[in-house]
């Protein structure tokens, strides 16, 4: 994958009480990504199989920022790689008993001018086992256990239990409870993202940043009308310890007037909500899916809301096949309401009126098979051209044309 982007940007900076200054910039960005993977599957006998795969990726990124007089003011250069392998073994003892176990190991490296050391590398591995047991035809239990090891944070055991009840042909219930573990990424640990030209800096949490653990619950009711429609209603909850969170710091530094940010831990937090999902195949050529999510996210240590998490989110995806020209038209996007942007803990009144506004994001695409194994894609992102540089990265409207060649697909 190769991507070259050039764009212009401007920002308004308040100078004093009644004076604003406009700064204009030229940006140039180059991204290159290379992926390789190989997979082996061995059917040991009719009731057992073994799979093994190895994969790697390399990503190279450079971004430069200039004034309109072509004076350099900022640069970001990073390259990172991920190399890993995994295996999985499955055995069916009877139709009611299936054993699965496997493991993964991978290493990730990052080189960047925004790392204090210039280069960092981490490695972690895991082993897992699950056992599917069907005591009666309509009831399935799936207990499991995962062992995870991180070279910095040590060993963690994470059990889980899943169950499903097929009440009748078109209705089922699913439930799960599990323990989770997430180690900080290299960027969350070590990055120093210094954008003094844009007025902010982001610091990694370093050795003081702890891994995140959680207890997760979910319960889903599903109605399924054969292949024509599926409706799901899910309740979910996560009780989190040492939640890894992007946190605002000092806004008084004149060099970083947009703020000094860092990654830190929230000792105790909770996220909870409900989600409705619907998938409909209205016609042979038309399919539609959409979802609505209500989320409550709380910092229980400070007894305040978590930032950057909207209460209400709506997503949709629809596709239609235009038969006369053998082309698929797709339309997808999302809407979310306003979300807290500055933590209530950063204000003396422990309340905040700093909210990122609600946002629509609409996208459209066309795809058509030109020849055997060759497909043409045309895509428009952010059709409404909604952008707001004050609240994170809202990319402007963009257009993409690509041609894909599938080496593996046969006639």
Secondary structure blueprint with pairings:
Blueprint lengths: L1 E14 L3 E27 L2 E20 L4 E23 L2 E16 L6 E18 L2 E12 L3 E15 L2 E12 L3 H5 L1 E4 L4 E4 L8 E14 L3 E20 L10 E25 L2 E14 L4 E2 L6 E11 L4 E10 L2 E2 L14 E2 L2 E13 L2 E8 L16 E8 L6
Parallel strand pairs: 11-14
Antiparallel strand pairs: 1-2, 2-3, 3-4, 4-5, 5-6, 6-7, 7-8, 8-9, 9-12, 10-11, 12-13, 13-14, 14-15, 15-16, 15-17, 17-18, 18-21, 19-20, 21-22, 22-23
Question: If you had to describe this structure to a student in words, what would you say it looks like?
Answer:
- With 411 residues, the protein is mainly β.
- 1% of the residues lie in helices and 72% in strands.
- It has one helix at residues 186-190, and strands at 2-15, 19-45, 48-67, 72-94, 97-112, 119-136, 139-150, 154-168, 171-182, 192-195, 200-203, 212-225, 229-248, 259-283, 286-299, 304-305, 312-322, 327-336, 339-340, 355-356, 359-371, 374-381, 398-405.
- The chain has a 21-stranded mixed sheet that branches. Strands 19-20 form a two-stranded antiparallel ribbon.
- The radius of gyration is 25 Å and the shape is globular.
- The two termini are 26 Å apart.
- The relative contact order is 0.06.
- The model has no long low-confidence stretch (mean pLDDT 86).
């Amino acid at each position: 994958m190769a991507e070259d982007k050039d764009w212009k940007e401007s920002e308004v900076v308040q100078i004093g009480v009644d004076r604003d200054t406009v700064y204009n910039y030229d940006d140039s960005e180059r991204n290159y990504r290379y992926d390789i993977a190989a997979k082996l599957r061995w059917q040991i006998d009719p009731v057992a199989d073994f799979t093994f795969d190895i994969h790697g990726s390399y990503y190279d990124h450079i971004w430069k920022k200039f004034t309109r007089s072509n004076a350099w003011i900022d640069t970001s250069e990073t390259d990172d790689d991920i190399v890993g392998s995994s295996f999985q073994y499955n055995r069916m003892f009877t139709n009611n008993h299936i054993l699965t176990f496997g493991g993964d190991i991978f290493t990730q490296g990052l080189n960047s001018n925004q790392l204090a050391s210039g280069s960092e590398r981490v490695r972690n591995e895991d082993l897992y086992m699950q056992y599917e047991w069907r005591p009666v035809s309509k009831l399935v239990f799936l207990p499991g256990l995962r062992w995870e090891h991180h070279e910095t944070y040590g060993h963690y055991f994470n059990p889980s239990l899943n169950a499903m009840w097929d009440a009748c042909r078109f209705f089922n219930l699913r439930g799960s409870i599990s323990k989770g573990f997430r180690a900080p990424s290299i960027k969350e640990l070590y990055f120093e993202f210094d954008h003094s030209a844009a007025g902010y800096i982001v610091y990694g949490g370093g050795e003081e940043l702890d891994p995140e653990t959680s207890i997760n619950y979910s319960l889903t009711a599903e109605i399924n009308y054969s292949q024509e429609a599926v409706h799901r209603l899910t309740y979910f909850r996560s009780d989190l310890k040492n939640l890894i969170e992007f946190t605002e710091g000092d806004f008084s530094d004149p060099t970083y007037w947009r703020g000094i940010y860092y990654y830190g831990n929230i000792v105790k937090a909770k996220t909870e909500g409900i989600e409705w999902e619907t998938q409909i195949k209205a016609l042979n050529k038309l399919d539609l899916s959409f979802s609505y999510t209500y989320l409550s996210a709380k910092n229980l240590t400070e007894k305040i809301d978590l930032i950057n998490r909207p209460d209400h989110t709506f997503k949709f995806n629809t596709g239609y096949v235009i038969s006369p020209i053998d082309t698929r038209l797709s339309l997808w996007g999302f809407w979310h309401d306003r979300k807290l942007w500055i933590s209530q803990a950063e204000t003396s009144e422990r309340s905040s009126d700093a909210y990122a506004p609600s946002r629509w994001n609409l996208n459209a695409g066309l795809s058509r098979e030109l020849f055997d194994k060759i497909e043409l894609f045309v895509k428009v992102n952010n059709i409404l051209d909604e952008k707001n540089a004050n609240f994170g990265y809202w990319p402007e409207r963009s257009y993409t044309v690509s041609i894909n060649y599938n080496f593996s697909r046969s006639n």
